[in-house]
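Query structure, 238 tokens:
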């Protein structure tokens, strides 16, 4: 596959290493230094684009890939207030999009465990639930995209919580997500159910960016021959 890397920072470089190992070719690398290369004509040289830039630039980059007619895998976080708009545009243009707040296989298994645990806890109001996410200090958004996905899963199951907040709270309806920024943390997510009698905790710790990068390349391999809007559940069958 010929791959365009839109965003050549920590993730773009980790993805390039995995893509080359898997026999793919990187035909375009875009960062702030060469934004002039981020054109529809250049993107069209690729079979698939992989977009990891950040909250401010993801939307425009994804739209550009759709306009180029090139399937796009995006992992940028902090822009999902415009996700519905992108989905509508992608459908209208008969494009291909695969978005995930977290591409690692381990986190996608963790999502399934989180949903199941949240469902079991529905009938146990004696437990309160809280989340913590820990990332490196260069991260621009808080809470992490993964934490928001986990929180939305819990909100979907737990009728005692009606919204998430990114600060401490004593309101019973608020699901607290605490964000910590310490180096070199690639990404840790912890969900704690606490009661007077005992606590239950589930935790995922990424040891490096390799899992995210491998998942993004698997997603690109999945997407490049398909039309439509997909998620990592489609890639992994979980
Ligand atoms: N879904 C997932 O599994 C994961 C998602 N992420 C998310 O991916 C995003 C990127 O993370 P990370 O690689 O760590 O961040 P970095 O800051 O290391 O890299 C971002 C890259 O995007 C470039 N960039 C910034 N603005 C633009 C733009 N307008 N057009 C094109 N390129 C641009 C930067 O250029 P320059 O270097 O010149 O500034 C840099 O190359 C974040 O939103 C992060 O949360 C991260 C890990 C996993
Ligand atoms: O910015 C990061 O580094 C990460 N971002 C994603 C997120 O916001 O959830 C995924 C991973 O945790 C690393």
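Result returned for the query:
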């Amino acid at each position: 596959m010929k791959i365009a890397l839109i965003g050549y920072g920590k993730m773009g470089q980790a993805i390039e290493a995995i893509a080359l190992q898997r026999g793919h070719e990187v035909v375009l690398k875009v960062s702030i230094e060469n934004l002039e290369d981020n054109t529809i004509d250049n993107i069209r040289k690729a079979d698939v684009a992989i977009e990891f830039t950040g909250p401010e630039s993801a939307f425009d980059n994804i739209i550009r890939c759709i306009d180029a007619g090139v399937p796009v895998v995006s992992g940028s976080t902090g822009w999902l207030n415009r996700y519905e708009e992108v989905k509508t545009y992608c459908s209208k243009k008969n494009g291909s999009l695969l978005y995930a707040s977290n591409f690692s296989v381990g986190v996608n298994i963790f999502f399934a465990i989180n949903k199941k645990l949240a469902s079991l806890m529905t009938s146990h109001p004696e437990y309160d639930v809280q989340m913590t996410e820990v990332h490196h200090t260069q991260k621009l958004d808080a809470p992490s995209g993964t934490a928001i996905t986990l929180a939305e899963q819990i909100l979907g199951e737990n009728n005692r919580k009606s919204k998430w907040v990114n600060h401490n709270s004593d309101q019973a309806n608020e699901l607290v997500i605490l964000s910590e920024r310490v180096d070199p943390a690639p990404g840790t997510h912890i969900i704690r159910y606490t009661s007077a009698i005992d606590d239950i905790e589930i935790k995922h710790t990424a040891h490096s960016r390799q899992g995210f990068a491998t998942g993004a390349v698997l997603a690109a391999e999945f997407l490049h021959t398909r039309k439509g809007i997909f998620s990592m559940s489609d890639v992994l069958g979980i």
